[in-house]
Amino acid sequence: MVAAHATYTERAERGASRTPVQRLASGQNVRDAPLLLKSHLDDVGDHQAEITYVEPVTDDAPLPPGVDRWPAPGEALLSPALVADGVGDRYGRIVGTIAPEGLAGPEERFAYARPAHGWLTYENALIATGFGAEGAAGLGDIAQVRPFSVFLSLLIPMLVLPAGVFAVVAARLGAAGRDRRTALVGALGGSRRQLALMSAGEGAPALLLGTVLTLPVVAATLVADLRVPWVDYVLSAADMRAHIWQLAGALIATPLLLAALVAVMHQPSGRVGRSTRPRAHSSRRLVKFSAALCPVFLGILSWSPSALATYGPSQMVVLLSLLGTVGALATLPAAIALLLSAAGRAVTAWGRRRGRAGALLAGRWTQGRPGYLSRLVAGVVIAIGLLSVVQVYPSMHSASVQGAIALREEFRYSVLTLSVPRGAVSQAGKWVDRLPPDAEAVVLESTLGLANGAGEVRRGPNGDIPINQAVTVRGNCPALRGLGLDCPAGSQAQTAPLSRSTPVLRALVPASVTTVRVETGGTTAQRNSTLVAYDPGGQDLPVGTLKRDALTLLGPGALVEGVGQSWIGGANLLSSQLRWVTLLGTAGVALVALAAALNCLAEVLRFARSIAPVSVVSGSRRVYAAVAAWTLAGPLVVAALLGAVSAVWITLPYTTAPRNGSLPSELLLSVVTTLAVLAVTVSSLAAVSAIRESRRWRPRQD
Question: Can the peptide bond before residue 658 be classed as cis, meaning omega within 30 degrees of 0?
């Protein structure tokens, strides 16, 4: 929690300190501003980079944090991460790097560049009178990260709450014996304060040991930047050092809070001195009530896909879908527990007929303990459900994103588009001249822009009037034939349909456009036109070099992209953010699973003590293995299988149209297999421990 707060706080402060101030003093006009700025978004690989082009008007133009001097014309200052990406001189000759205080984070891809030809003017750029605003503007990573409240909404349910569950289970291990002792001390006159001190003192060695083991990890975050596994995020040591007192407070507060938890969890259930009974088991009525609600939540999940398709992602539909998911996860353990409790009757009857003491005892035990079974299977069911939701979320790409990924696999970088900025149309031919010898180029002109796939709809007196989008392809005959188009005879244009024989155009032009106008001519770009360069043999074009040439010849705003790059960049950003869901969810599931396993082990050991004399009657200690198998391994394996089935149901709102997430069967198979192995392992440990306990049992000597 402290690390998350420190990261967000320091990142926001650095973002605010580098935010340009555009406020003019009294009596000043725009041309009195000492600095001109213009932002340019670029993709480096599949990562987004933000380049701020600068043009100092005066010699004393203000500097942002992390910059000692402005670069000269044709030079650039890059962040260390951008240098490591190998962009070379794409934005200008590298003359230094931006210091950490000028970056949102260690891995931010950010740069300050100065055009060589003075492209920035008061007409096409923003002015700046200084740096340091009250709030951080959307520059660099600041524009990409989710708010702190969103991260807390993931951190608290996926990590903090499972940790709390684990702490409660750890505090209550062996609780029956402690409850008897607490009641006895209370009967002898001990006060609640004395009982709390006794419980806290008993837990003190473990709490101190846990704190000591935490110190090296905390110290490591203060000394060097640490890369968080899986999400590939770098935790800044400088951010942690800036909040060292909060970190120290957390180290002190955590064992104190846990000591208070131990004390509270071992208070007597009634008045002190009135009873020596341990705490009662969970009410069967609550389990039945929860199980009765389970079909209601499953029905909501079944209704959600059709509601999303009919009404869209409205607030009510989303809330109901969320309610169905959370409610199903909360009530499924109770429903499964009732099924297992009912199956206990069959196990009891089978054990009686076969003369199997282990099956008879286990069947009678599970038959009357639905609360225990609900706690037993809750970790398994919730774990599978959370893992399934975590897996489905990153796969919920829209059809456009999925199509863009397919296009990337098909074309790679053999097809590039160039968006020409205003004022640089006349220079576009120079960029075409620098294409590889085998490459061809054409011009695409659209009445609505290539990004507008659905066309426009304007309101008229008699209703909406759709406006058809017209696309023109212009180039020389070899370039047109390479795209699958026939070269028009003479100077007259002709209309050509789009089909499988024109895959490049079909990939670039919106699906609503079925025909294009074909013209012969040069590749002189016009306003709202796009240059398309491609290799007829399907070989990748030198995208890095062509990006550099476009920025040098055409100035800031010249954007060279592969097919579907904007969609792929957004999908990768979403996937990188959703990896936090996977990381936190996996850690939380691991805590829940371990807590459930320890809880089950404690329950079996307590039961083993109560049936210790059975080995004398049965003549064999193998009865404990049978009891452990029937009461622990069996229910856990059944819960894993039913949990996998319920996971498919729980993820229906995310895997059914209009959403297109996917839940791999391999994931469910691997999770069920892992849980089955865990169930057998814990059952074996429980049986061994029960056998050891039985060896200590001796009949009372009266």
Answer: yes
| Nearest by Cα to 118 from 398, 423, 560 | 423
pLDDT reported for residue 271: 54
Contact 136, 16 (CB under 8 A): yes
**Collapsing DSSP states into helix, strand and coil, what is residue 328?**
helix
Rounded-to-integer distance, Cα 669 and Cα 677, Å: 12
139: phi > 0 → left, psi -120 to 50 → alpha, else beta; which? beta
Can you name the residues that pair with 97 across neighbouring β-strands? Answer: 78
What per-residue string of b and e applies to 76-88 under the rule 16 or more CB within 10 Å gives b?
bbbbbbbbebebe
589 phi and psi angles, rounded to 5 deg: -65, -40
3-state DSSP assignment of residue 226: strand
Q: Specify the pLDDT at position 367.
A: 73
Query: Cα–chain-centroid distance for residue 589?
Result: 15
Are the beta carbons of 334 and 298 closer than 8 angstroms?
Answer: no
Strand-by-strand arrangement of the 47-56 sheet: 93-97, 75-78, 110-113, 47-56, 35-44, 126-128
Backbone φ and ψ of 219, nearest 5°: -60, -35
Q: Which H or E run contains 96? A: strand 93-97
Which residues are within 8 A (CB) of 202 and not within 5 positions of it... i.e. 6 or more apart?
A: 262
Give CA–CA dist 78/96, Å, rounded.
Answer: 7
Q: What value, to the nearest 5°, has the Cα angle with vertex 149 and ends 583 and 48? A: 65
Residue 242: predicted pLDDT: 93
| 345 Cβ contact list (under 8 Å, min separation 6) | 363, 367
Give the relative orientation of helices 634-650 and 665-696 as an angle to the nearest 10 degrees: 160
Nearest Cα neighbor of 229 from 539, 527, 668, 584 is 584
Q: What is the pLDDT of residue 424?
A: 78
CA distance linking residue 251 with residue 1, whole number of Å: 12
Of 641, 610, 623, the C-alpha closest to 340 is: 641
| Cα–Cα distances in angstroms (integers) from residue 259 to residues 147, 200, 264, 316, 675, in the given order | 33, 5, 9, 42, 32
| Residue 279 CA from chain centroid, whole number | 41
Residue 415, burial from CB neighbour count under 10 angstroms (0-12, 13-18, 19+):
buried
* Six-digit token string for 693: 């306990």
Q: Say what angle helices 315-354 and 357-367 make with each other, to 10 degrees.
A: 140
DSSP-derived pairing of the beta strands 47-56 and 20-21: unpaired
192-195: long-range contacts at Cβ-Cβ below 8 A with a sequence spacing of 24 or more? 192/267, 192/268, 192/272, 195/263, 195/266, 195/267, 195/268, 195/272
> Consecutive sets of 10 residues in the chain, 702 residues long: mean pLDDT of each?
92 89 80 89 85 91 92 93 90 92 90 89 87 76 77 77 80 72 79 85 91 93 90 89 94 93 75 50 68 86 75 68 77 86 80 73 73 76 80 66 75 88 80 89 75 50 66 87 84 82 84 83 73 89 90 87 78 74 81 77 67 59 75 84 87 75 82 85 77 66 47
Q: Helices (DSSP H) in 355-451: which residue ranges?
A: 357-367, 370-392, 399-411, 428-433
**Rounded distance, CA 280 to CA 372, Å?**
12
Side-chain-side CA neighbours of 442 within 13 Å: the count stands at 29
C-beta neighbour count of 234 within 10 angstroms: 15
Q: Which amino acid makes up residue 183?
A: A
Give the separation between CA 68 and CA 689, rounded to whole angstroms.
68
**What crossing angle do the helices spanning 284-311 and 634-650 adopt, rounded to 10°?**
30
Distance CA 497, CA 61 (A): 55
Quick one: pLDDT at residue 98? 94
Distance CA 431, CA 418 (A): 9
Distance CA 437, CA 48 (A): 30
